[in-house]
Amino acid sequence: MLKPTLSLLILCLLGLSATAALPARDDLDAVLLRNVSNGFVDYDGIKADPAFSRYLAGLATAGDARLDDRNARLALLINAYNTFAIQGILDGYSPASMLGRYTFFKRREYSLLGTRTTLEDLAHGQLLPLGEPRLHFAIVCASISCPRLASQAYAPAALDTQLEAAARAFANDGTRNRYDTARQIAFLSRIFDWYEADFVAAAGSTQKYLARYVSDPVVRDILARDGFKVRFVDYDWDLNGVYRGEPD
Fold first, then answer.
1. Which among 175, 171, 174 has a CA at the least distance from the CA of 223?
2. Is the separation of the CB atoms in 134 and 167 below 8 Å?
3. Which helix or strand (DSSP H or E) is residue 115 part of?
4. What is the residue range of 30's domain?
5. Would you say 226 and 181 are in contact if contact means Cβ atoms under 8 Å apart?
6. Could you count the other beta carbons within 10 Å of the beta carbon of residue 143?
7. Residue 36: which H helix or E strand, with range?
8. Helices 25-35 & 70-90, crossing angle to 10 degrees?
9. How far is residue 244 from each of residues 44, 90, 93, 128, 142, measured CA to CA in Å?
10. How many angstroms separate the first and last alpha carbons of the chain?
11. Residues 6+ apart with CB under 8 A from 188
12. In terms of domains, do 230 and 187 share one?
């Protein structure tokens, strides 16, 4: 029989190991692959998917002892944000109205790493301080004008490649940003208005930041010179979901 002190030590070590375990990213990968197409989300499919519930539960119980690496922390927090936004929709919340946005972002709480957080706190208290402007193209608030939700989870080893792809996709998405070279007017997402300071800090100006990612060489040249007049387009807060039910 083990001595009481040794038994207690083993139990403590087992408890620490369980707490430190990160949620199984393979679960989220599978959920997104099955239920996200071109950024549109099958919320009914996710609700019925046990892998989503497992990943959500894993976020709640995980410890942050293994998140000293910046990429590991950033990937987990991006995945957590997107997971919580989906769960908010499944719980009946919606950012479609002003009051709905207040509840969706600032009031609804989720369990993360043993504490309670909101989407607002997660974004502004944990993600933005990491100083990665490309995360603005990776976190998705369940709305049409948000970036398109990726069909795979973010992973530490592939994070830079994934964030580059997300930034490039958003910058060249004509439904989010449009560049009128004839009139030299850039119709940009409100994301570039709300988080202008992040893009200025990274590249000197929002237009110069966009020039890193826009594919069209003519547009890229104008952006690099800050040559566009900028107009921010209205944000569409309608749900980024697909309909599965039978028509009325």
1. 171
2. yes
3. strand 115-117
4. 22-171
5. no
6. 20
7. strand 36-37
8. 50
9. 7, 15, 19, 35, 17
10. 68
11. 177, 206, 210, 230, 231, 232, 233
12. yes
Q: Please list the rounded mean pLDDT of every run of 10 residues in the chain (248 residues).
A: 48 44 92 97 97 96 77 96 98 97 97 96 97 98 97 97 98 98 98 98 98 98 98 97 59
**147 and 183 housed in the same domain:** no
pLDDT for the residue 100? 97
Tell whether 247 is covered by a domain. no
Q: Which residues does 42 contact at the CB level (< 8 Å), separation at least 6?
A: 34, 35, 36, 241, 242, 244
As a whole number of angstroms, the distance between CA 203 and CA 219 comes to 17
Same domain, 45 and 139: yes
Q: pTM (2 decimals)?
A: 0.89
28/147 same-domain check: yes
* CA count, 13 A, side-chain hemisphere, 222: 17
CB atoms closer than 10 angstroms to residue 208? 16
Count of structural domains within the chain: 2
**Is 97 found in the same domain as 34?**
yes
Burial class from Cβ neighbours inside 10 Å (0-12, 13-18, 19+) for residue 24 reads: middle
- Do 49 and 165 reside in the same domain of the chain? yes
The position carrying tokens 């800050």 is 226
Q: Give a yes or no: residue 15 inside a domain.
A: no
Residue 193's Cα: distance from chain center in Å? 18
Phi, psi (5° rounding) for residue 65? -65, -25
Q: Is 88 part of a structural domain of the chain?
A: yes
What single-letter DSSP state applies at residue 82? H
Give the model's pLDDT for residue 243. 62
